[in-house]
Design goal:
The chain is α/β, with parallel strands linked by helices. The chain has a five-stranded mixed β-sheet, with helices on one face. Strand 2, helix 2 and strand 3 form a beta-alpha-beta unit. It is extended, with a radius of gyration of 34 Å. It starts with a helix and ends with a helix.
Amino acid sequence: MVILFAGMTLGLAQSPAPAPKVLPLQRSFSSSQQFIIYNNDKILRARLARQVEDIKANFLRRLGLSDEWKSPIIIRVLTLRPSNQPKIITNAFESDGDQLKLQIDVFEPAVIGTADFDIEIYRALCLEYQYRNYVLKAGKQISQPPAWLIEALYEESRAKEDGPAAGLYEMLLQRGSSPKLEAFLKEKPTMYDGTSRAIYRAQAVGLLRAIMAFQGAQANLCTYLSKLPEKNATDAKELIKAFPALDQDPSLLAKAWVLSIADVSAANRLDPMTIEDTRKQLALVLDLSAPPNPKKPDEKPLRGPMAFQEIARTPEGRYVLDQKKDDLLRLESRSHPLLRPMIAEYRLIVTQLVAKPKRNVRDRLEKNQELLDAVSQRANAVEDYLNWYEAAKLETPSGHFTNVTDEPAIQKTQRSDAVSRRLDDLEAQGW
């Protein structure tokens, strides 16, 4: 019996247990059928389908294109992130029929609500258009679309919702000249911090608006993109050659670039946000929640700006706060002047936490919040008084003080001398 038991045990050990089945990710198609979204969350897939179609509509409208796509774009929202892999990445493969296959892998679901996700969608759309009528060649490297165009398309779409950062464009205008095109096309904005990338996007929007101001610019830009598989997107000569007006006189671009930046810098300059709108936008930016403390499960996690310190010390904290720093920078340029110093203080605190996550900024956060509340309460009190004054103002005079304000009637005295009688007769006759 012992030997039989041992044999049975050995046999069980030698027979491996069946591996658990890995269920395939469920998928959804967007309304144009171009985007195929893989994730098991049905609500997330539906939201992403609407989001990517909005981005695509803006892309087609800005370039004056019709929806004639050929290569689908696959979006996979995954939960496991391989080591040394970015949070989101766009891959291009060669599929059957020498066609391009595009796949966007999202390894952190939090990226979906950030600029990085929108930019990768614009990148995939540009790649699909570049290689739409191009036969791929084995071993030939995929040519990336212009970085300035992708960043400009995103910044323009963002400005439609949040308004342009007029102060940022005004700062660029004060420099007096546009960037050197050769150097600008070779810049890599993905390597920049939040502030530098915001400046790059402002310059990219200026460049896009400058070249789109010339006649036939949409068609010329599309032709330029379709030739990029055989060209270099960082070559300034190729970009200028794509636009006949610039090819004849390249100096026109620098002038148009500065004028387009000046045009954006004047936008909303006299129409700042109200205090109420500023508080609402700030509340959305600061809507954060710290991760729960496993040592204190009954304690509610911190929310709002007081959660900055806890978030900064998490593995993903630097990325989350870096995005908030960009949001605060954009809000600061459009905010009400009374609240702008407090928003700037929040931005400085977040910037320091990104650099040094263990820095203690609790006192600064509390003082800044107290100042923000005090200024808001005082502004609300002034607004309430003005509203009361406007509501209490009478539309018609009450007549209570007429006897005081009216001038006393002048009593006319009747004179009987000859001259006075003659004048009275003339007045009676109509003279």
